Amino acid sequence: MRDFTEIWSYLAGDPLIWLAATLLAYVIGDAASSRMGRAPWVNPVLIAVVLLGALLYLSDTRYDTYFEGAQFVHFLLGPATVALAIPLWHQRAAFRRALLPVLAALIAGSLTAVLSALAIGHALGLSPQLLATLAPKGTTAPVAIGISQALGGSPTLTAVLVLLTGIVGAIVVTPLMNLLRIRDWRARGLAVGVAAHGIGTARALQVNPQAGAFAGIGMALNALLTALLAPWALGLYF
To answer: Of 40, 75, 110, which residue sits at a domain end?
Structure first.
């Protein structure tokens, strides 16, 4: 046991150990999801978060130490988001035919996400900083962090809220859409892209290519619209 502790202390000081741990945790989560037939409640990101959180807790490792090694994965968020243009290009004809409904749903979804979060937070008595942290939680992480920082919020807490929003959205979207009897893959994809950004988009791509393409559209356009709406909405309260 003493030898193991000494070995772990040595490895924990190497940033690459946390990159490897991040990738391994996701591989385990993805394998579990695949084994369960991609059931929405077996979300690979959620499993990876739980595994990494337990490892950090048990090893008494600070988050900044972990992030020093895992930041390469964070860097890849940008290229991964841009890569969503590929399925969008394949669905460009369907997008043009649905342009007006897409724009209407986008505006409704973005407004609902921002205003409902702020209204609930204000009713609970949250401070201005926490409201600024909460306002952009419905958009993708790189954009949400930038908005939060510009509004005077906590970028780190915003990232956590974005992650939780995406995981919850990815888990509930399929049973919820089935319950509401929404069969159009365009509508299903756009809804999860607007409400659950990147994690929801990844779920949509697993289910249907057209849903994945429209989820990418929803995520990208919602990021732009949220950047415009969040400062205005926050100004309604302060």
So the answer is: 75
Q: How far apart are the C-alpha atoms of 122 and 2, rounded to whole Å?
A: 51
User: pLDDT tens digits, the chain, 238 residues: what are they?
Assistant: 454 455 445 455 556 788 888 889 999 999 998 888 888 788 888 899 899 889 888 888 887 778 777 777 777 777 777 777 787 788 888 888 888 988 999 999 999 999 999 999 999 988 989 999 999 988 888 888 889 989 998 888 898 899 889 889 888 888 888 899 999 999 999 999 998 888 888 888 888 888 888 998 888 889 889 989 998 988 877 6
Residues 21 and 90 in one domain: no
In 3D, which of 134, 171, 183 has the Cα closest to residue 155?
Answer: 134
Query: Do the beta carbons of residue 188 and residue 211 sit within 8 Å?
Result: yes
Give the angle subtended at the CA of 217 by the CAs of 212 and 220, to the nearest 5°: 120
Residue in 95, 151, 91 with CA at minimum distance from that of residue 121: 151
Whole-model pTM over 0.70: yes
Are 121 and 35 in the same domain?
A: no
Residue 140 is encoded by which pair of tokens?
Answer: 């993708």
Q: Is the same domain home to 9 and 101?
A: no
Residue with tokens 């741990």: 21
Structure tokens at 132: 């600024």
Residue located via tokens 């030898």: 3
